[in-house]
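Model the whole thing, not chain by chain.
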Amino acid sequence: MTVSFILSSLARLYPDAQCALLFRNPFELLIATILAAQATDKSVNKITPELFRKYPTPADFLPLSPEELEASIRTIGLYKNKARHILATCTLLVSRFGGEVPADRASLESLPGVGRKTANVVLSNAFGVPAIAVDTHVFRVANRLGLAQAATVLETERQLMGNIPEEQWTIAHHWLITHGRQVCHARKPACSSCDLHPVCADYHKKTEE
DNA sequence: AACTCGGGGCA
DNA sequence: TGCCCAGAGTT
């Protein structure tokens, strides 16, 4: 079947696919993912080791003023929102969740700066809960390949969950995002060097014209 | 649906 | 120099 061929091809292409953000526990991944909104994973990984060395737990962030945290994360951009969201999230983690990162979607999405994509990243990578985090890469690649035919991120996620075995949800996210970053680019997809174009819906559509 | 946050990385 | 970056909140 086409879907299983696509999945097995991606597995062969990206055997080492994994989370691009450095983290040692759910809290570090949560903060790193908030920081990663519209920033590169390399930029985030550059500042988080020092950040978590100085502030290892949610409680350690509480004494910080917004200005102090902004200064620490300035080099990745969009730092004002991120600093505000991180401080508010740490306050909630301490006051409502006993200083721990909650492991359910509703609680995660109640945290400032945490949307569905970030919640899925934390659930799947830090807690082992099967989930598919749909960002712009996954949305684009999944719809091009034909793993989804959806106009929205949420509908793409639902279709992927229906088309992919649950035990592969987490790794499928890493396969698709890696393929999007390395081959299936937004502007100029490298179809000529892509092993998947024989089964790619978008490639067939383009070549028929 | 459109707008805002944003300095750094990289061609 | 110009474009993009593992998004989310507000209006």
